Amino acid sequence: MSWLEETTTALLAAFPEGVAAMPTADEIPQFQVDRGHLRAVAEWLKANGANMCLDIGGVDYLTMARTPRFEVVYHFLHLPTDGSSNGFGKLRLRVPVPEEKPEVATVSDLWEAANPAEREIWDLYGIRFPGHPNLTRILMPDEWEGHPLRKDYPLQGPRANELTLEPADVNRFHPFKAP
After folding, report:
1. How far is CA 7 from CA 106, 126, 179, in A?
2. CATH number of this structure's domain 3-149
3. Per-residue pLDDT tens over the stretch 130-143
4. Strand pairing partners for 76?
5. Residue whose C-alpha is closest to residue 12's, from 23, 4, 21
6. How many C-beta atoms surround the C-beta of residue 167 within 10 A?
7. Nearest 5 degrees, angle CA 66-CA 27-CA 33?
């Protein structure tokens, strides 16, 4: 039995309350993890061979009228380090995050690669990661207002409502029509 098969079975057995298997469109098994169980699941995965955090991403489902509005998606990788032929395996965790309290426990102390990814998600979506050692902006300037990948963010930025457009600016985006 491969690491991936063993791990997926053991994960569901270890966390019957907070983890549920989800259908997947590819060969990467994915699980929905309750926000309150993420830290324990992450520690369990780390102890059971998930030795690399490939990526963490944020999703805003505002326009899909989905509840909860946000989701944080984790991709983990197992690379055999003992020379065994147990093969590598990828695993995906999806953590729903409510709009009212957008925060998820940090995993940056378990996998260093999570540090900049969590900062990016906070910067662009406003999802906080309590326990993160340096949760500051990473892509946007420090004085930036808001989180630009949220679906309700103004298309021209937070100052869009304050701008006074000259006729030439308006015509640049909307072709001039003679009266």
Report:
1. 22, 32, 69
2. 3.30.460.80
3. 999 999 999 999 99
4. 53, 91
5. 21
6. 8
7. 40
- pLDDT for the residue numbered 98: 97
User: What pLDDT sits at residue 40?
Assistant: 98
Which helix (H) or strand (E) element contains residue 168? helix 167-173
- Strand pairing partners for 128? 103
141 cis-preceded (ω within 30 degrees of 0): no
In angstroms, the CA 176 to CA 133 distance is 52
Asked whether 99 and 69 are in contact (CB, 8 A), the reply is yes
Q: Specify whether the CB–CB gap between 111 and 118 falls below 8 A.
A: no
Model confidence over 50-76: pLDDT tens digits?
Answer: 999 999 999 999 999 889 999 999 999
Report whether pLDDT(170) > 80.
Answer: no
Amino acid (one-letter) located at 61: Y
Phi/psi for 102 (5° steps) reads -80, 85
Q: Tokens for 38?
A: 């993420």
The torsion angle over the Cα atoms of residues 98, 101, 105 and 111, rounded to 10 degrees, is: 70
Contacts of 53 (CB under 8 A, 6+ apart): 74, 75, 76, 77, 107, 110, 111, 113, 114, 117
